[in-house]
Amino acid sequence: MSSKRDYYDVLGVAHNASTAEIKAAYRKAAVRYHPDRNPGDRQAEDSFKEAAEAYAVLSDAEKRAQYDRFGHSGVGEQPFTGFDASVFGDFADILGNIFGFEGFFGGGRRRSNGPERGADLRVATTLSFEDMAQGVDRTIQVIREESCETCRGAGTTSPGGRETCRACGGRGQVRLSQGFFTMVQTCPQCGGAGQVIKNPCSTCHGLGRVEAKREVKISIPPGLEDGTRVRVVGQGEGGMRGGPPGDLYVVVRVEPHDRFVRDGADLHLEHEISSFLAVLGTEIEVPT
To answer: Residue 28 is part of a domain; what is its CATH number?
Structure first.
């Protein structure tokens, strides 16, 4: 029987928790237990690794399904050992925001400390055939990361709130010796940035962004085909360190009509008449 704690208990979420809830719980644990904020605290380091291991499984739909069915044996019983880029690739961006870099667990390029544009978002909305033909205004619910108003996306409100990383001395790289071999890798504490935040913002805890639920009003023009993307400028994820926000792309889905079939800009209608009228010709009323 596995001695590991239940991954859901590790993150403090229910077994039916959404992906967003799991991500938020991991973010909270990572900020709380990160080794750079708890120097010399072995228990905090172990808790950090445990939370990272739990998130690596629960954030992956396939691994989560295996875990829900078979427990720890379904995802392997090997212990979590250090910073493996293949394990942390899916969520490095979460902790990366704390320190202003990419590739938090090594192997990534050094990230600029300047302004960074927010990511684009994609949502879908379904229209009736009639709304497609006439055009319609819609209000879209969006959950997104927005630039923290307290620190304006900087992650800290203190002047000179960043300090040189103690692990690498500001070089952004560390040397590891294994037997006769010595290799250089990206510093796991600062991810190559050479700096860490010493006084994190109390609102965003150094992340520079906060999660928010917004209602975005959009106007959908008439005649759009199924699958068309409508771009809403500036309504995506908030930027980092004063960077501009990304855009929102709304994918339009059109419900089929019970009588009309669309063919490009044309509408086709099948209407049944008798053979007699087909031979002689007639006038019929066509719905519009």
So the answer is: 1.10.287.110
259 within a domain of the structure (yes/no): no
Query: Does residue 9 fall inside a structural domain?
Result: yes
Question: Positive or negative CA dihedral for 249, 87, 45, 188?
Answer: negative
* Residue 216: its H or E element: strand 209-220
pLDDT in tens, the chain (288 residues): 457 899 999 999 988 888 888 988 888 888 888 876 777 888 888 898 899 889 989 988 888 988 888 888 877 654 444 444 333 444 444 545 444 444 344 444 444 555 778 889 989 999 998 888 889 999 999 999 888 888 887 778 888 777 888 888 888 888 876 555 667 777 877 767 677 888 888 898 877 888 999 999 999 999 888 888 999 999 998 887 678 899 999 999 988 888 888 877 778 887 777 888 778 888 887 776
Residue 178 in tokens? 């294994």
Please work out, in degrees rounded to the nearest 5, the angle formed at the alpha carbon of residue 108 by the alpha carbons of 102 and 111: 40
pTM: 0.50
What tokens appear for 190 in the block? 């600062």
Instruction: Count the domains in the chain.
Output: 1
Report the C-alpha dihedral over residues 54, 55, 60, 66, rounded to 10 degrees. 10
120 in any annotated domain: no
Is there a domain that residue 43 lies in?
yes
Angle at 272 between CA 268 and CA 276, to 5 degrees: 130
Which whole-number Å values give the CA distances from 11 to 48, 81, 179, in the listed order?
11, 19, 37
Nearest-angstrom CA–CA distance, 59 and 182: 34
Domain span holding position 51: 1-82
Q: Which residue has tokens 């409100």?
A: 157
Written as six digits, the tokens of 138 are 């819609």
